[in-house]
Write a structure and sequence with these properties.
With 262 residues, the chain is α/β, with parallel strands linked by helices. The protein folds into 2 domains: 203 residues, NAD(P)-binding Rossmann-like Domain (Rossmann fold, 3-Layer(aba) Sandwich); 36 residues, no CATH class. 46% of the residues lie in helices and 15% in strands. The protein is built from 9 helices and 7 strands. It has a 7-stranded parallel sheet, with helices on both faces. The longest helix is centred in the middle third of the chain and has 29 residues. Bound molecules: NADP nicotinamide-adenine-dinucleotide phosphate. The site of NADP nicotinamide-adenine-dinucleotide phosphate (NAP) has 30 residues, from α1, β2 and α7.
Amino acid sequence: MDLGIRGRLALICGASRGLGFACAGRLAEAGAQVVLVAREAANLEAAAAALRARHGVQARALAADSTSDAGCAAILRECPAPDILVLSGGWPAATQRHGDADAAAVQSALQSMLLAQMALVAGVAPGMAARGFGRVVAVTSRLIKNPEWELALPSVARLGLSAYLKAASRNAAWARRNVTFNSLLPGVFASETQVAQTERLARERHTDIATVETERLSLTPAGRWGVPDEFGACCAFLCSAHAGFINGQALAIDGGAHGGLW
Ligand SMILES: NC(=O)c1ccc[n+]([C@@H]2O[C@H](COP(=O)([O-])OP(=O)(O)OC[C@H]3O[C@@H](n4cnc5c(N)ncnc54)[C@H](OP(=O)(O)O)[C@@H]3O)[C@@H](O)[C@H]2O)c1
């Protein structure tokens, strides 16, 4: 299917690997020009070069910390008028993530998973509306439907981001100008980070990787990890010309792990 976004400019944060890179790949495959953001410049340049070679599109690396105020300002300065914004990556530097974390950890979680993303959305949405096309997709988490005490801060911050996008979708001045705001909620996907985390858990528990994998997948009816490319394909569809009537949704892509309809 032609996604109708050939030549559109897509800004993807958290794009050097994992789900963000998969989203960038599917957008580039559809003919979009892509600007990839991540912190580590060498990996990022390699990712951009791979997309240029594979899809023959313009793919530019923009090294920045998309969770800091200075990083967001640099991103908006370098790429002020994207047609598509995908927000992935971002995790608090502070190690405390549980529900009785101190104020600094709470602030860190909110900054890295909510406030920075809100600033980026607010920075690009008016221009999208002025130009009559815009797609914003944030990668939040399955946690927003199933919050956990050990991951209370990411649960709160990511629910906040999905709520912000829902609120933005209700702004008629943007919706009537073909600008949409949606969240994608990944379950367990086989990104490098998740695979490394499984290996770390196995080491910490003095058990084998297969045992930890079985545990992690026990609540997923599909009985497997998600594949980043299938995530990227869903994201690209939400960014497509065909998805203009899908607005304000929070879609779980989790192999059926979430037990409810809503
Ligand atoms: N994979 C899953 O199963 C899963 C499940 C639920 C939620 N999620 C969420 O989905 C998002 C993507 O997950 P993933 O597994 O694909 O992650 P990943 O493999 O760790 O990739 C993260 C990407 O974001 C970049 N990044 C991280 N922090 C950044 C920052 N402060 N500024 C700019 N770029 C940054 C990383 O590059 P640099 O390190 O070079 O910056 C990398 O390109 C994350 O927010 C994750 O928490 C993932």
